Amino acid sequence: MYRRSFFLTGIGGLASLSSFSSGAQEQLPSGTLNIYVGFPAGTVTDGLSRGIAERVRNELGRPVVVLNQPGATGMISLERLKRAPADGSVIGVVPLTSGLIAPMFKTRPGFDLTTDFDSVIMLGHYALAFSVSPALGVDDWAGFLRWARANPNDLFYGHGGTGGLAHLMGGLLSGATGLGMKDVPFKGDVEAMGVVFGGQVQSALVSTVSARPLYQGKKLKVLAVTSRTRDPGMGDVPTFVELGYPNAVSENWVAAFAPKGTPARALALWNKAINNALSEPGFRQTLSNQGYIVDGGSAESLADTVVGDARKWRRVMEAAGFKATD
Question: Is 96 in contact with 252 (CB distance < 8 Å)?
């Protein structure tokens, strides 16, 4: 069942309808506009989508609804987006994990992000944090390496689900360090961090967005991040690049796509409205506080990123020895 959230309330909301751009009305179909999200309400991707929906409705001249379609690491929503009307009425907010990485673990994923969709805009990105429980008794990456080599049978890392960026990144780190870490999948970052905090698993790779509040509350130690530069909310935590792993860079982007064949004018209207939303200082600050690095930009630059990342992560998957399954 879809979860619907309308961003028009009371007389004020109805009054704003009368001031909608006539240009947008002419280029978009009548009725409600939809944003597909492949995760439940309250998740990171959902929150970003709702913030955008609230801010673009006036400029696009339509009510905007977020439709939550959770399942299969976000891939169910993408399969539905592929089949949705290509008339400008629908876009999907898609993380890198759902669009490119999780499908690589399936022999028949049901879609190809590089060919089955039209790019709209890059929204933002964030990195991963290698986290350990304070009870482990290590204070930095060097300390973790010493502990790991002394406890080779206890080397497990948790992550938020098979086929996710953290799953793949853990395999890359395992090979780069020679530690042979074994992965333990959980149902999202919250569950993965919970078992690390409780001491059931020694470490976890989770998003910096998820890790930052627990790190700042001193409930979780973060030993390194996978971004190119340090996370603004965890400035004393080094990057893996600083620690001597130049290829251990991964930043999970979130972007908007539309069904293939959506009219160019409709795509341009969505791109302009979302760029304007992302440029609002208050919204940018909110997203920054949550751990996002805000992007925006052209549809063309997003399309180039998708093609390049598809090649990159396919190579990483093959090097790490991961195999696609049914």
Answer: yes
The structure tokens listed for 140 are 């930095």
Evaluate whether 161 touches 186 at the Cβ level (below 8 Å): yes
How far is 277 from 274, CA to CA, in rounded Å? Answer: 5
CATH of 127-234, one of 3.30.450.90, 3.40.50.300, 3.40.190.10, 3.30.230.70: 3.40.190.10
Of 12-26, 64-78, 240-254, which range is least confident?
A: 12-26
Instruction: State the sign of the Cα–Cα–Cα–Cα dihedral 27, 95, 80, 314.
Output: positive
CATH class of 3-125+253-320: alpha beta
Is residue 243 within 8 A of residue 223, CB to CB? The reply is no
Residue with tokens 């969709």: 117
| Bridge partner list, 253 | 125
Beta pairing partners, 36: 67, 92
Is the CB of residue 49 less than 8 Å from the CB of residue 66? yes
pLDDT in tens, 199-237: 888 899 999 988 988 898 888 899 999 999 999 889 999
As annotated, the residues of the chain forming the CATH 3.40.190.150 domain(s) are 3-125+253-320
- Taking a C-beta distance cutoff of 8 angstroms, is the pair 242, 172 a contact? no
CA distance 142 to 3: 46
Extract the tokens encoding 60: 């696009």
pLDDT at 11 over 70: no
Specify whether the CB–CB gap between 202 and 221 falls below 8 A.
no
Measured distance CA(33)–CA(91) in Å, rounded: 8
**Structure tokens, 310:** 């598809």
Model pLDDT for residues 33-48, shown as the tens digit of each residue: 999 999 888 888 899 9
First to last CA, the chain: 25
Query: Where does the chain hold its CATH 3.40.190.10 domain(s)?
Result: 127-234
As given in the structure block, the two tokens for residue 236 are 């004393």
